[in-house]
Amino acid sequence: RERVASHYQMSVTLKSEIKKLIYTHLVIWLLLLAQMCVGHFKLLPHDQVAMPYQWEYPYLLSILPSLLGLLSFPRNNISYLVLSMISTGLFSVAPLIYGAMEMFPMAQQLYRHGKAYRFIFGFSAVSVMYLVVVVAAQVHGWQLYYSKKLLDSWFTSTQEKKKK
């Protein structure tokens, strides 16, 4: 009984941490979506809010792993959690890696020559977007870490139920 209670408590704690990360991801996602809408619908001049970089478009799919993660929680659905973890790599981490590479020449230009050609509210767009990449990478990294721990907890709990 004590083991089941500790697994339950661990599951509750991990779910809570993952939810915080998902909500943080949602804020990042909404900010990128807002930038895209402002850029494409010309709600503000492009010298105020730059058009999105190419990596931002596939990153919009990063909402799917978060939704799968949330869907896995009510019934401890291992399949949804595994799909969430795999799709986090594909739709969240991969676009961030691509984005870091895509923006590197602009970052070099800014660093070496002090020249920026795209801006977001007066700040160099490449600097702002690298900050987004760094924060998002941490969010997704911790999300994967906690999801793996939660998955292990669910597996252990399932195995103990089968033994009884």
TrEMBL record:
<keyword id="KW-0812">Transmembrane</keyword>
<dbReference type="GO" id="GO:0016192">
    <property type="term" value="P:vesicle-mediated transport"/>
</dbReference>
<dbReference type="GO" id="GO:0038158">
    <property type="term" value="P:granulocyte colony-stimulating factor signaling pathway"/>
</dbReference>
<protein>
    <recommendedName>
        <fullName>Protein jagunal homolog 1</fullName>
    </recommendedName>
</protein>
<dbReference type="Pfam" id="PF07086">
    <property type="entry name" value="Jagunal"/>
</dbReference>
<keyword id="KW-0256">Endoplasmic reticulum</keyword>
<feature type="transmembrane region" description="Helical">
    <location>
        <begin position="21"/>
        <end position="43"/>
    </location>
</feature>
<dbReference type="GO" id="GO:0007029">
    <property type="term" value="P:endoplasmic reticulum organization"/>
</dbReference>
<feature type="transmembrane region" description="Helical">
    <location>
        <begin position="119"/>
        <end position="139"/>
    </location>
</feature>
<keyword id="KW-0472">Membrane</keyword>
<dbReference type="GO" id="GO:0005789">
    <property type="term" value="C:endoplasmic reticulum membrane"/>
</dbReference>
<keyword id="KW-1133">Transmembrane helix</keyword>
<feature type="transmembrane region" description="Helical">
    <location>
        <begin position="80"/>
        <end position="99"/>
    </location>
</feature>
<comment type="similarity">
    <text>Belongs to the jagunal family.</text>
</comment>
<dbReference type="InterPro" id="IPR009787">
    <property type="entry name" value="Jagunal"/>
</dbReference>
